[in-house]
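Protocol step 4 of 6: structure prediction from sequence.
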Amino acid sequence: MAGTGQDRGLYLLDGHNLALPQGTGIATYARGLAAAVAADGFRPGVIFGAGPGRPTAPGRLGGALRLARRLGGQASIAWQGGTLAVTPADGPQAGLPPGTLRLNARDAQGRAHLHLRTRHRLLPLRLPAGLNPVAMHWTFPTPLAVPGVPNIYSVLDLIPMVLPETTLTDQAQHARMLRLIAGQAAHIVTISEWSRADIIRLLGVDPARVTNTWLGVAPDPAALALPPDALAARLRDFALAPQGYFLFYAAIEPRKNLRRLIEAFLATDIASPLIIAGGKAWLWQAELAALAGRADTPDGRVRLLGHLPRADLMALVRGARAVCFPSLYEGFGLPAVEAMALGAPVLTSTASCMPEIVGDAALCVEPRCVGALAAGLLALDRDARLRARLAAAGPLRAAFFSPARYAARLAALHEKLGLRAD
């Protein structure tokens, strides 16, 4: 399966999420995947999807829906040969391994979703002549494929199928895409045993065709290196002190369960504030309804900081009295592992994969019960020994998900699939 000439050992990944302005958890996953691919001896290549003169990719569905409206919903879409051309692209991409090949497929996501909507098929990508990769690895479910090479799809979770009320996804369209992927993928990769079981059960995939590699998570080096006085100075910029606040960080949307966390926090007498770091995503209004004017003041019990630069965010994580991540459903739960890696006590959920991810290194509570959330918050606020135990256990548990261990798991999958770098 190896390529020849200058593309020997070329291993392609999609770059849609890497190009989004604020990034996503999938962008973090894609960068880790690229690093692991390079560690296994392959040369990574990334296919972006920007339009002409646009440095970032369009929204996953926006371009497709706009084009569908202009065509009046007709199915007569005519691209050359029914494929989308991939062309070389210039310029560095921060966070990718040196020597990563850059490619572009114009408006790939928009065109692919339109193709799926009108033709009910995955859209083939046409690579430049002479480019022969060993594999194409899609970092999230997408209605694209590269003919003639193994197409590996990462399906990190089945949230639109399991909790449809928490998303704005077109359920029928998404299910159609997942079933096409399940039938055509050379292999499906996921990131927890919980997600693997969902994929097997809900998509009917042969267990031999689904592999859990977990994720690769390293403690943020800049936050880890901050001495106590520098950390305290950084936190003073937010009018905070070390271990003087609880922290929630994630996009504000229903699945993250912020509404119940706020209700639980306001039901306690905890003096330390609850700090919320994250942008407003879909259906965010109901998640913040419990505040009713009680937020956004420096001395308020709940403060909204919005989306923060990663350096500031990781400093907040390291200095938190506890990090709260009571999600209703996760494929992996990256914020909880990031917090554990930095030695922050974690309050998380008994739902989906979270107990298997955190083990005994976090406090897990029933996420739909406001009383249980309040009890967990009070326990972490009042019990210094509990906080100390979780702070010590967190880095040990997070080490199971180290980038080196992730690279080894991915290398084992490549060997299983017969993918070689030479």
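Step 5 (inspection) to follow. The mean pLDDT is 89.
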